[in-house]
């Protein structure tokens, strides 16, 4: 085993992240590619202020992933943002540059775009995004890029958003894709699902859940009952993780 100060440290910061895919994915990648000086850890932070303590006590940190609930509130702790992270206003990847700067990036949008392209031969025209956090920002960015009209659905909507109570049959029928960008349904709360009127769904809909644990959420199960196509967040996660590694190893 290499001494701690000889290792290149990578990891994930978030809250209650024992379930996370990232540590297993990167640990297997490092083993497969004989990257014996690389290690990936979970850094479960109770609050974002602990980030300062983490980086001051780990001088060999090379890169971090960021998950719920820190994708937006991590930004003031960083020296700069990539063009995409600035536009999205959320960070899911941090690069510790050799010059000492800490740069925030967003690879979620790349993961979602690639996963979406595998499901659609042509771009969807109308979408609903469930949730208004950092993950939703990346989805909005992709939809704007491909010219897909969308509405955000939130439990606490602003004047430009919809509440769940406002989701009428007319709104659901004209929608092509519904993206769950909220944490509702994530392990261990697997019996929960976003409160949408599932009875208006049909085979023309795609339900895309950013959640990957469980593989089939209650949201997706209910969509299947009405003939909708479904996709979980696993491919998106792999694509964004690969882009994170590309940034870290550049």
3D architecture notes:
The protein is an alpha/beta fold. The chain is 31% helix and 20% strand. The protein has eight helices and eleven strands. It has helices at 22-32, 50-57, 83-88, 108-119, 134-146, 169-173, 218-225, 234-248; strands at residues 8-14, 38-44, 61-66, 80-81, 93-96, 102-105, 126-130, 149-153, 177-180, 206-209, 229-231. Strands 2-1-3-5-6-4 form a six-stranded mixed beta sheet, with helices on both faces. α4 (108-119) packs across α5 and α4 crosses α8. The relative contact order is 0.13. The model has no long low-confidence stretch (mean pLDDT 95).
The helix fraction, in percent, is 25-40%
User: Segments where pLDDT lies below 50 for 5+ residues?
Assistant: none
Strand count, sense and barrel status of the largest sheet are: 6 strands, mixed
**C-alpha termini separation:** 25 Å
Number of strands: 11
What value does the average pLDDT take? 95
Strand order of the largest sheet: 2-1-3-5-6-4
Give the C-alpha Rg.
19 Å
Estimated share of beta-strand residues: 15-25%
Shape: elongated
Structural class: alpha/beta
* Tally of separate helices: 8
Name the helix and strand elements from N-terminus to C-terminus, one letter apiece.
EHEHEEHEEHEHEHEEHEH
